[in-house]
Amino acid sequence: MRSIKLFLSLIFISAIVIFLSAPGLAEENTSKAQLPVLTTSAGQSTDVTTLNIIMEEAEILYDYCDIPGPDLLAEGAGLGGRESGEGFHVEVYTDLDTYPKGTPYKTIIFAIGASLKGMGASGLTIDSEVARLTSLIDYCKKNNIFIIAIHAGGASKRGPSGSDNEKMIDAVAPFADYLIVVEDSNKDGRFTKISEEKGIPISQVDYALDIVSILQQVFQ
Fold first, then answer.
1. What is the rounded CA–CA span in Å between residue 19 and residue 33?
2. What DSSP character marks residue 137?
3. What is the pTM of this model?
4. What are the distances in angstroms from CA 94 to CA 34, 62, 99?
5. How confident is the model over 196-209, as pLDDT tens digits?
6. Quick check: bond before 70 cis, omega within 30?
7. How many CB atoms within 10 Å of residue 192?
8. Helices then strands (H, E): number in the chain?
9. 150-173 burial, b if ≥16 CB within 10 A, otherwise e?
10. Which of 4, 16, 70, 153 is at a distance of 20 to 30 A from 187, taking alpha carbons?
């Protein structure tokens, strides 16, 4: 009888270990984000459009700005009533009844991926975009804003060391509080290495739309 109980216990423990080691399961449960949330780009690629679609599919209300700096982030929910203009885009979807204008952002989500065309349209260079991201992250750290970094662009938004895309990863990923990547973005284990070295929880999924369920759990 004792041997049977031991055998069943070992099976139960093994099942728990397998569950906790599965990508996108145990890690996401350790990271909880709060509203209001701002989405933005790290590199001005169209991956931020993918991120915003994911947010809508997850039914998470958000504000969006393509090139916010610390001053705009400090405006809080509603982005200070700013309007889109040439090389500058904002969208406000936050429930301003629940989170009145000016309510400090609790979370920021970066969509990582470089586009020279996108940066050019915003009057940015690689260096000025990195500088903007650095100042934004510094503000977040000083004001306890939870940082989620998402890489959903796959191999097309990767490159050799020192490439534009890798510079965007360098600028954001090591400073995130939570990483979410698609498998095709992490074939070389780059994000896994960052996660292990910096102690950042990470979830890896097969496809970008799989991120929907992860964000729903993160913002529970």
1. 22
2. H
3. 0.85
4. 12, 5, 7
5. 999 999 999 999 99
6. no
7. 15
8. 8, 7
9. bbbbbeebbeeeeebbbbbbbbbb
10. 16
